[in-house]
Every structure is written in C-alpha cells, then in structure tokens.
Amino acid sequence: MEKTLVVMAAGMGSRFGGLKQIEPVGPNGEFIIDYSVYDAKRAGFGKVVFVIKKELEEVFRETIGKRLEDKIDVAYAFQEIGDIPSKKYLAEKRTKPWGTVQAVLCSKDYVEGDFVVINADDFYGYDTYVKASSFLDEEMSDHVYASITFPYIKTASLFGSVKRAVCFTHDGNISELVESKITTKDGYAIAEPLSGEEAFGISLDQAVSMNIFAFKHSFFQYLEEYFKEYFLHDDEYILSNEALLPDVVEKNIKNGKIILRNVPTTSSWFGVTYKEDLEGLKKSIGELIEKGEYPNKLWE
Fold first, then answer.
1. 290 vs 279: CA distance, rounded Å
2. φ and ψ at 225, to 5 degrees?
C-alpha cells in the first residue's frame, strides 16, 4: 500500500500571531506545506492527509489544495473539539483541539498503510523524507517505528525559547522522550520538562524530536487506547492539558510494546515559532533554491 503523509495543520499559531500554515515563504508564494509535500512525493509518498479545523477547509482548498490535487492524492480530515471518546460535556468548556493524539487519530479513515506524521509549520528538508521513506520500506516489524531527529541547535530560535522533545538513545533506539521548553545558553541549553520535573542541561547537538514520526498502521491502536485513557482523568486535568503524540510513544516504549528507532537526518530544519523567524526562513529557502535543491517555481 502507498505511504501516506499526515500533516497536522489545525493549529492557529498563537505565538506566531496568525495562520502561519498559509504564510508565503517561497519566491512564488509557496507555503511551508508546499515544500513538505514536494519533498514527500519525490521520496515515495503517494498521498497526503491534511488534518485541519472544519472552518479552515475552504481556505485550505483554495490555497494549498488547488495546487496539489492534480499532483498527489489529497484528503482532508477534520479535528473537532466535540470528537472525543467520553465526557462529551467537556467540549463546551474547551476552546482548542485536544492535542496531537487527536489530530493523528482524525486521519485514520484516510490512511491504509504506513504513514509519516509532520507539523504543518515545520520545514524538514528532503533528506528527512528520504530517511522516513527508507525506514518504512525496510522495517518489517509491525511495532517498530522511527523518529527522524535533529540536533537541537538546528531547531533553536534566535528569538526565544522553543518546545522540543529531548530524545535519550541507547543502541540506536530512543529510550525516553522528554517534552521540554528549551532555552539556549552559551555553548549549551537548558531543558525544562513540561511535566514540571527538574530542569537539566543538554548539549547543542542533543537529538530532539520535531514531531516527525514514521509509523506502521498498527500505531493507531496505541493512539486510540491513550486517547480513551486521557479522558479517565479528572475534568480539570483534561481541560488544562493536551494528549500529545510523544507521550503515547514514550508510554509504549516504557511498557515494552513498541520500539522507536532514532533516525538522524542531515537536513536543516526551519520553522516559524515567532513572527521574527519568518524572514530567516525565507532567506534559507532562497539559499536552497540557489544551490539547486529546489526549483524556483516549485510545482512547474
């Protein structure tokens, strides 16, 4: 079955100050998503599923969709606040979706085989998709997955702290993922776990997860289990937190149900966490075009 790219695009980009998924970054109005789909297609992916809010469907179809629909199989899945397994009354008290676990679960009906999950507002680079595609082609075990990782320094922002999952590895596998707020210091960085545990220092080349995972279709069962369990917490916890993809992975690594390979990429990562990051991203894409890694007009 064809490999599918699942793009989590329901977020509104609060720190960035707008809908950053449709902010032009290429010389001819290309979005970050355009480059992601372009790279995935040439790395062997045959389908893309955009996970969006229902109210964004029209703007997605009119901007991104109309450029892609004759080049790759495109589907849209909707992440809705009311689409939860229990405690439906909490939906009325919630103003944003329930996190990346829910986002990926929304894509299940459109994914037939292996798939890769990405953030809509991250530029991962061609080698990242090649590594993910090769892993899925070569890995035969149904419960061995991969995180395509970057050195932290390649993902840092010049304009403030960032949230990353710090990866601790052993024998090529990731043994622990620690979702953290990371601040760069002189020659190192400080990671503050979002769980509230004690902060720790990391080197600038520490592997971090940027929410690009290569999964077999079997992973959906772990997502469903985790999302149901999330709603067993008390109401205050449920409303003040999110069900996050790295937490599902971390839980099932520790209970021995899955193995997560660490697959480093040589690509440079670019992202837009803050408005000030935008000009640097445009400049970096321009440099890649000058090197011949991308055409000036992406879809011609």
1. 17
2. -60, -45
Give the 3-state secondary structure of 226-271.
HHHHHCCCCHHHHHHCCCCHHHHHHHHHHCCCCEEEEEECCCCCEE
Residue 146 Rama label (left phi>0; alpha psi -120 to 50; beta):
beta
Going by pLDDT thresholds of 50, 70 and 90, the confidence category of residue 17 is: very low
Q: Name the band, by pLDDT with cuts 50, 70 and 90, for residue 141.
A: very high
CA 27 to chain centre: 24
Say if CB 202 and CB 187 are below 8 A apart.
no
What is the rounded (10 degree) CA torsion for 263, 117, 112, 50? -160
Angstrom distance (rounded) from CA 35 to CA 259:
29
CA–CA distance, 211 with 118 (Å, rounded to integer): 6
pTM of the model: 0.92
Pairing, β 162-170 against β 173-184: antiparallel
**190-245: pLDDT as tens digits:** 999 988 999 999 999 999 999 999 999 999 999 999 999 999 999 999 999 999 99
